[in-house]
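Page 37, top half.
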Amino acid sequence: MGSTSQHFAILGAGLMGRLLALALAQQGHRVQVYEAASADAKGSAARAAAAMLAPLAESAVTEPSVVRMGLYSLSRWPQLIEAMHQPVFFQQNGTLIVWHRPDEPEADRLHRHLERTAAELPALAPAQRLDAASLARTEPALAGRFAQGFYLPEEGQLDNRELLTALLAQLQDAGVSLHWHSPRKPEDFEPGAAGQPDWLIDCRGLGAQHAWRHLRGVRGEVARVYAPEVTLLRPLRLLHPRYPLYIAPKPDHVFVIGATEIESEDRSPASVRSTLELLSAAYSVHSGFAEGRLLEMSTQLRPTLPDNLPALRWLGRRSLQVNGLYRHGFLIAPALLDATLELLGAGQSALADRLGLSVQTAPLAPLPCGS
């Protein structure tokens, strides 16, 4: 890419699109962003997320490469947030995992897995097993409600909607050209040609399905609840017989509760079954949720590749795709950001190699018949 100012076109203004646009603008480049939806990011999976930064907790449902990306990103998020002009809620009070008595065998299996993961990645703070008394000291609101738990130190969370808003303001301040309700495809551009951007970066998530054939959506449903009678000091995970369930406390007694995982690209509203399961599970954690108010029930489709792992992919010499963040968008976004910047600058990324982030090259399109 060189050190001189270049012209970038970025497709998609979700989490990755905004992070990359801002980083490139701060490097002195000219940046244009094309987004099919509006500035409020309602078309982005990032708006419905809980934005938990929990690499060890997520190791139960993902691969070691994602855990390494999450560990890297956990130290990068404070640096990125500190540079924002608007405040963004960020917390690093750890993660608490609890379970009801019938799920104790699953808790034992999880503990063995967490111990193996921490042994393989010594930079991860290991899980601490809590009895009823130490659990009550760690999370006073749960005193007397659970007999045991795991505490995962150093893990954290942020407010996803505050971050998206702060990034938007920062992009505007940086002079980035933002084109809303302006869907574009990679084939609409010829990077490097006269009158065209020098580089193209496709961050459209599921919007890139036509260009990345194996990309699929995985449905998730997330509740936002206002519960003034509940105070939690950190994100909480409840072992659940069907899917990982979390309660992430945001400012002002708002809680994000999720998340189902359904292999479907159905974008319809949340099902009654999912809503009942999520809210019943929250009530089983703390009875104060019974008097809460359901602010929103969101449905999202997470962009997912066949191996459920993220990837960077060259579409051409000056065209790059960033996709497949699945359920780990906020956990791994800074790692993908920094690896992408390395790729653009040097054509390769030592960070991607170190973290196990896949860098691919798209297959060549078939030649037209008769050519």
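Page 37, bottom half:
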Amino acid sequence: MSTALALDHLGLCARDPAPLWAAWEAIGFALSPMAQQSGRRTPEGPVEPFGSGNRCAFLRHGYVELLGILDPALFANGVDRFVERYEGAHILALSIGDAEGNLERLRRGGLDIPGIAWLQRPVEPGGPIARFARLPFPDAPEGRVQLVQHLTPELVWDARWMGHRNGAIALESAILASADPAATTARLAKLSGLPAEPDPVAGFRLRLPGAARAAGPDSPRMETLIRVLPPEALPRLLPGVGIPSLPFMAGMVIRTEDGGAKARALLGPGLRDAPDGAMVPPEQAGGCAVIFA
């Protein structure tokens, strides 16, 4: 199927990743070991080490990537540019099952994509190498919006780092604010190959249909959402969240196994009530609101 299938992951970026990792552990996530990234800068180039590194919160369906700069002397893979705007979410990745087919579709649609970007990283220091195929929307003002095919998903989703104290099990939706929601949505619709529809609050949304194993080797088929709102409507979904710059990847909804009960017990008065659940404000979660539903 040469369209996007599901939300694969959101990526948060920080200059210094240590406080970001500590913040996510404090809100109840078990994180994977630190891994320095590597890859090819061009489709034909050699694999080289990057200056960026990550830890991730892997869920039964999807995950959240927490990125920072480990070595400023090396190529930072865009993290340095992102954090100049703000520290927070800058990466929106949609899962696909056929990188070649989606590349052909995007080129037919007029996008100038030189080819599939092949990335790899060790799943842990000295461990096996996970491999990915990536198709980015070129020069998207929203950040790094991309299609991703996991070539070694069984290496990435490891049960050792999937037992979260907050009960998190699935990345359910991404919430963006844009000064031009129609333009942002049009880019995401072209990237995904899926139609947009009006959002019930304001702006637009895309429904990703899901497929078994689309966002993890044991992930169930489930619908996921991208919601693109005008800035004046954002408080209706994310109360009290300020906007540092537009476009802004403002928040996410994470489905839990118990309707957010563990998260509420763990975080107590640090949470805010939001329409979709209990919200951790951005200042406690690395610059992006996290709603436990």
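Margin note: The chain has seven helices and 16 strands.
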